[in-house]
Amino acid sequence: MDHVFTLIKSMAQLNQSALKARNKLFAMFLVHIILDAMLVVIAKDMWAIGRILVTIVVMYFVLQGQKWAKWILIGIFSLLVVALIGLVVALYSKLSTILIIGSLILTILSTIIVIYIVFSKDLNRYFAYKRQTSGSKQSH
After folding, report:
1. Is 103 within 8 Å of 39 (Cβ atoms)?
2. pLDDT of residue 140
3. HSE-CB of 134 using CA atoms within 13 angstroms
4. Which of 61, 111, 129, 131 would bridge with 66, disulfide CB 3.0–4.6 Å?
5. What is the pTM of this model?
């Protein structure tokens, strides 16, 4: 019963700005996955579906406040940025305009998400809260 009161108290301590930061990150994740999936379908690169599924799983753990997932996601997005820029530069004349523009938008969005994950104080407060609550669940 003490666990329930502790959880309620810690939820009350989590302020609205931290919840807004989480919601903003979730919205960016959704836009990223939708855009990424659309580009995969347009490019007919069905092997990339596996990468998208792995990214979704890692995103879930990021939203649960897992530090390891945060760094893996930063790595995935960093590699994606490098790969997309390389793809656009190397195959510019062979790619459709929609793929070029979509890839550049996805590059910018991936960069924004990485910056947001690393530097948002409100988001990091939310992650700390999630780690605290999951830690208290495991200890009971």
Report:
1. yes
2. 47
3. 13
4. 61
5. 0.83
